[in-house]
Recover the amino acids of this structure.
């Protein structure tokens, strides 16, 4: 519980209804979506305008109190779990204004707490497109997406959140306002601080406003589904599609475990013997879409696809994607605890990675189903267990450690889109170098001398 | 339960369900109270965490947890959207039973659920006394909604704009109904629900007219208790079981193919909660409740799926009608296309969808009684969507939603009428 004088100050600053100090309220800001131990903060505060946000940061810095910024709390690596019991959580959920959608210059200006899907909807009402679509887009906030560099299904063709950040305003640790980037396509004024803030996981500053790039929406799209006897063929097909110079907007893979479990649940008549299913969508100009779909179909067949389905209308297309939509929900229903990983490898290494994941699961006697973004080599091996069973959970942790080892050996990365947080910080040096850790820590210390911004996250401070 | 540790032990029975919550937070997108307050303790993820913490004794403040548990409409939107499929409604009802039971049930609620709503003759008698007297205290508010308000009763009703009680209740109007089958046709049991019996009697009349039109025989006993959902929502399982026993008796040994209600919440309660809670009664009640639950069907679904009512070709000057999905109808019973088909079956109606048609209206039964300010806030979002649709009529298939819609529309002075879907359909029948 926070000091009474501090609580009173915040109540005067933000109004009583925006200061959450009761034990019950504080306990609900102790976790996020990561399977990690909760830490109950001393207080949670909700500024309702940007000026208040800056004053909150300054007040906490002046008082030497650690702070964790939280949007929707959907982080999968513990980035929004408080570091200590004296942490104050700053909520951005009271800052939800879409300030501008500029249809001439193709950008949007938003406050940090705007929900990703709300921005996408607002853009589409102006016939514009905001492509990043992380799995949590219906609830996740833009500043959270920026702080984690959230990806999604469209990463292969459209990129991730980082590719849409044109400019940012943020408060540094002391509450000073920093402006970087602009509403222009080109801008080289000063350091690219916006680039630094992307995927900084709340350790370098507190985002107060973002200028985000919007693009014209594709006029047409077409989906295909292909069935393969083994993952090797599916991966060859993925490589073949790229080699044929087609860049699909989505290229998703489901492994056999996932197919069987989804079929058990939906009774949709999926090919239970298949080693893998690929779901592909191409989009763009109608003529280009037709050409590309034809090329994709040829490549799929040339790579031993045992079946290729092309939906005739929107209803059939919706049904086709059902298997992918249901992948996580179905896996999550199998066992009490779902550990969703995102180790990522170069596309060409997908078969090796899939084999390793299944071998490791067998070695540690743990259940795993894998689906994910095959086009980016970004797989989601999903470990199913019961964290209340300490012995089993220990085996899961050991299996995940070994999986990271393999991902790094295959020249991949610890995390494609979920972030490091506290969940993967111990692995950082192994993927990067001692120098990277030291450089990052020196950067943090220079910008945040008291070490108050999400102190234990990423490389620590 | 003597102490907090005992309460915790009993709450641990829910742990096997709660542990499936993967804290993805998707409930934030659909929860009506979270949408209005933005507080994590109001959303399902937060509430489940608090129940779990109370069970694991990491919070020792059952009053605080009870307060959070009460801030929920039990609309089931979260459960319908929950990726791991946590049985959230079961967990919430059982947690309310245990926590409220530990703290002691509100004596007013106890009186209402165990005595008034469980004793049809007493409830009916009270309404008979009350209905004529209301003329003295209510004054007219919404023109389009036929609502009234009662400044003299502000201490009890707040600033609500509601329909007055019916001058003559449905059971007084129709008495005990037990028709013989028309030439071997279908026969249904009709459960008007408290609101269909005492407030929205026109809805009951419309349902009976539609059933008669299709030559469906009706069994409607005149001594029914409340379906039990309000008592359950308040954690009063004993009160619910009293009501259930009265209702089971009324339907025992009767011949009918389906049982239905104009109230989606009553139908959902009959289908889901009657068999679940009858487990706590004897073998006879258990079997009967299961049999009745198997026959429970929403009236829109019955008209469209069984009787094959279909959309008609719309008149040139048809009235724009928008439709609000009642939570218990769409999210609990899975009925969404049939009420729309039924509206379109009236040639004088043209269906115009509103945005967020399946977002909760904010009534939630007793939630409205104890959190009227939040209820109004949630209702305002629904009202804005209704008005933006440009429709002159908003139809729904649940009297509780109708009451809430009338209240918010009346407060905003909107010229939008509120109707039950079956009322619209019945208007098209000669």
């Amino acid at each position: 519980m926070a000091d009474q004088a501090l609580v009173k100050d915040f109540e005067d600053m933000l109004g009583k209804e925006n200061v959450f100090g009761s034990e019950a309220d504080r306990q609900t800001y102790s976790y996020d979506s990561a399977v990690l131990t909760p830490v109950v903060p001393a207080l949670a505060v909700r500024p309702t305008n940007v000026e208040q946000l800056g004053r909150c940061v300054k007040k906490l810095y002046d008082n030497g109190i650690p702070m964790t910024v939280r949007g929707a709390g959907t982080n999968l690596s513990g980035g929004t779990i408080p570091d200590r019991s004296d942490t104050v959580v700053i909520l951005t959920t009271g800052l939800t204004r879409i300030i501008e959608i500029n249809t001439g210059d193709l950008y949007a200006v938003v406050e940090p707490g705007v929900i990703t899907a709300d921005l996408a909807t607002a853009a589409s009402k102006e016939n514009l497109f905001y492509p990043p679509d992380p799995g949590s887009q219906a609830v996740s906030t833009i500043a959270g997406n920026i702080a984690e560099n959230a990806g999604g299904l469209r990463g292969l063709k459209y990129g991730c959140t980082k590719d849409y950040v044109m400019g940012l305003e943020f408060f540094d640790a002391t509450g000073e306002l920093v402006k970087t980037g602009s509403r222009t396509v080109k801008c080289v004024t000063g350091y690219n601080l916006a680039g630094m803030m992307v995927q900084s996981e709340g350790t370098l500053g507190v985002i107060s406003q973002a200028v985000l790039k919007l693009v014209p929406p594709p006029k047409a799209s077409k989906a295909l589904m292909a069935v393969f006897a083994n993952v090797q063929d599916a991966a060859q097909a993925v490589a073949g599609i790229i080699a044929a110079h087609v860049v699909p907007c989505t290229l998703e893979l489901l492994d056999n475990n996932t197919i069987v479990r989804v079929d058990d649940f939906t009774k949709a008549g999926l090919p239970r013997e298949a080693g893998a299913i690929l779901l592909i969508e191409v989009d763009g100009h109608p003529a280009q879409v037709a050409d590309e779909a034809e090329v994709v179909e040829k490549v799929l067949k040339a790579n031993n696809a045992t079946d290729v389905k092309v939906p005739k209308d929107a209803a059939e297309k919706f049904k086709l994607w059902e298997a992918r939509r249901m992948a996580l929900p179905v896996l999550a229903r199998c066992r009490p605890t779902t550990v969703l990983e995102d180790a990522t490898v170069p596309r060409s290494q997908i078969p090796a990675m899939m084999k390793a994941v299944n071998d490791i699961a067998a070695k540690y006697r743990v259940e795993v189903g894998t689906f994910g973004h095959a086009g980016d080599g970004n797989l989601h091996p999903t470990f199913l267990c019961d964290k209340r069973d300490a012995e089993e959970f220990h085996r899961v942790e050991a299996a995940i450690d070994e999986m990271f080892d393999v991902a790094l050996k295959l020249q991949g990365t610890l995390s494609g889109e979920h972030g490091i947080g506290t969940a993967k910080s111990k692995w950082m040096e192994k993927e990067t170098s001692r120098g990277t850790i030291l450089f990052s820590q020196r950067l943090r210390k220079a910008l945040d001398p008291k070490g108050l911004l999400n102190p234990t996250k990423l490389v620590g401070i | 339960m003597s102490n907090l540790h005992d309460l915790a032990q009993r709450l641990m029975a829910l742990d096997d369900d709660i542990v499936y919550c993967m804290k993805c937070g998707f409930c934030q997108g659909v929860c009506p109270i979270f949408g209005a307050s933005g507080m994590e303790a109001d959303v399902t993820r937060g509430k489940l965490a608090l129940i779990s913490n109370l069970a694991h004794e990491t919070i020792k403040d059952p009053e605080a947890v009870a307060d959070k548990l009460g801030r929920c409409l039990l609309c089931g939107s979260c459960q319908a959207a929950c990726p791991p499929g946590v049985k959230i409604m079961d967990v919430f009802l059982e947690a309310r039973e245990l926590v409220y039971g530990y703290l002691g049930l509100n004596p007013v609620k106890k009186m209402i659920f165990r005595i008034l709503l469980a004793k049809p003759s007493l409830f009916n008698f009270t309404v008979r006394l009350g209905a004529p007297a209301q003329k003295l205290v209510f004054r007219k508010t919404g023109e389009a909604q036929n609502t009234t308000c009662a400044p003299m009763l502000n201490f009890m009703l707040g600033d609500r704009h509601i329909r007055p009680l019916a001058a003559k209740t449905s059971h007084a109007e129709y008495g005990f109904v037990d028709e013989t089958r028309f030439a071997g046709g279908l026969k249904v049991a009709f459960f008007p629900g408290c609101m269909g019996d005492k407030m929205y009697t026109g809805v009951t009349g419309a349902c009976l007219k539609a059933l008669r039109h299709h030559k469906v025989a009706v069994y409607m006993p005149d001594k029914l208790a409340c379906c039990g959902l309000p008592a359950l929502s308040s954690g009063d399982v004993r009160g619910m079981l009293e009501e259930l026993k009265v209702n089971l008796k009324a339907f025992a040994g009767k011949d009918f193919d389906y049982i239905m209600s104009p109230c989606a919440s009553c139908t959902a309660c009959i289908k889901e909660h009657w068999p679940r809670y009858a487990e706590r009664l004897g073998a006879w009640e258990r079997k009967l409740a299961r049999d009745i639950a198997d026959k429970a069907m929403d009236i829109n679904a019955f008209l469209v799926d069984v009787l094959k009512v279909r959309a008609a070709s719309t008149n040139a000057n048809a009235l724009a009608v928008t439709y609000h999905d009642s939570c218990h109808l769409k999210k609990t019973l899975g009925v969404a296309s049939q009420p729309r088909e039924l509206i379109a079956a009236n040639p004088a109606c043209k269906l115009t969808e509103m945005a967020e048609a399946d977002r909760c209206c904010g009534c939630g039964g007793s939630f409205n009684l104890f959190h009227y300010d939040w209820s109004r806030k949630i209702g305002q979002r629904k009202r804005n969507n209704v008005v933006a649709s440009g429709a002159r009529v908003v139809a729904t298939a649940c009297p509780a939603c109708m009451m809430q819609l009338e209240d918010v529309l009346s407060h905003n002075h909107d010229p939008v009428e509120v109707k039950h879907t079956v009322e619209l359909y019945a208007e098209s029948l000669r």
Summary: The first strand of chain A starts at residue 19 and ends at 20.
